[in-house]
Amino acid sequence: MAYTSYERVRAALEHREPDRIPFDMGATAVSGINRHAYVALRRHLGMPETEIGIFDLVTQLAAVDDDMVERLGIDVRAVKPDPPSKRGLATDVVRDGDYDAVTDEWGVKWKMPVDGGHYFDMYDAPLKHASTPIDLEQVSWPDFQDETRYAAIKQKVDSCVHAQKRACVLDRDYGGIWETALWTCGFEKFFLDMAVNEQFVHALMEKITALKMQFWQKAIAAAGDNILIVSEADDLAAQNSLFCSPRMYKQMVHPYHKKLFGFIKKQAEAQTGSRVYLFYHTCGAVKPLIPLLIEEGVDILNPVQVNAQDMDTRTLKREFGHDITFWGGGVDTQRVLPFGTPSQVRDEVKRRIDDLAPGGGFVFAAVHNVQSDVPPENFMAMWETLREFGEY
Fold this sequence. Notes:
This protein is α/β, with parallel strands linked by helices and 392 residues long. Helix content is 41%, strand content 12%. Strands 3-8-9-10-11-12-13 form a seven-stranded parallel β-sheet. Strands 4-5-6-7 form a four-stranded antiparallel β-sheet, with no helix packed on it. Strands 1-2 form a two-stranded antiparallel sheet. Helix 11 links the parallel strand 10 and strand 11. Helix 12 (313-320) runs parallel beside helix 14. The longest helix is centred in the middle third of the chain and has 26 residues, at 198-223. The model has no long low-confidence stretch (mean pLDDT 97).
C-alpha cells in the first residue's frame, strides 16, 4: 500500500506499521536543525543557497525549506501562530556590547554572543522579585485574545494536509506551564518557591494555565477540522534525575497539566470529530513521570533522551509502547551525531530503530535539535540509515 505522509504519521500514532517509519525534521521547536548546520547541509547536498528563515529565534533553528522537505521526504510540517498585532513587552533584537539582546512578550530577556553565538540564553526574569498572588496582578501578560495570532492558521493547516498531504503539528505559543513559570521567575527562585512559597507557586501556575487555555481555545477554533497533533513542552528532568521529586511534581505541576491537556483534547476532538494527539516534550531522565504524563493525556513523548538515566529505548518500548508514541530518540545528539563517525551514527540509528519501531508508535527524529556542530556527513548517515532500515 502506498501511504501519503499524512497517512504514514497517522498510522504510527495509531500504533500500526505503515510502509516506513515517519520522519520529522523541523516540525517542532525541539526537533529542528540549527541554521548553521542547515546551511552546511544544503551545501553538502548541492542545493541552491537561499536566504535562511528562522523558525525559532532563541534556539536559532532554521525554517526548513520546501525543497529540503521534498529532498529528505520529511513527513511532518509545523503550523505556528503569528506574532500579535500589539507586541507588549516584546522587543526587536538589539546590539548590547558583544551580544545581541532581545526581550520576549512574557518579559524574559535573552542574549547571544555576536561572534560565535549559536543560540540565545536567558539572563533576566521579569518576576524575579514577585512573591505574592497580588504581585501577579501588576504584571503585563501576553494578550492571547489578539486575533492576529490566529488569522493564518487555517490556511496553513489546510495547505499542509490537502495540498502537501503531510501531517502537521499545531504549535504552542511558548514554553509549557512549568517552564514558563521557571523562565519568568528564574530557575533558582521558582524552585525555592516550590519548597517554601506554595501559595505563590499555585497562583502563578493557575495564571499561566488560564492564559494557555485562552491561546488554545483560539488556535484550535482557527485551525478547523484538520487538526491531528498539538504540541506542548516543558523540561521535567536533567541528565540523571528529575528536577523535583515525583511527590512535588504531582502536587504542583500535575494538576495544571491535567487541566490544560484535557481542555486541549476536548476542544480539538469536539471540533474534528476524531482523535487528536497531544505531543509533549521533556528532555532528561523522565521515566518516573511517564505514567503521570499518560494519565494527563499525553499521547506522544518527545524525545527519548537515550543517554539519560533509565531511558533505555528497548525498556521504554516494552513498558510504555502500547500507551504512548515515541517521537525522537532516533540518534543521540550529545555525542554520537556531532562527534561520532558516520559508521557510529549508522550503528546508533539502526539500534534505535530495532528498539522503537516494531508495532508502530514511533516517529523518527534526532533526540533533540540538530546543533551547529553536526557534520553534514553524519546527518546524511543518519538519514540514509533510516531509509535503509526504516521500512516495515
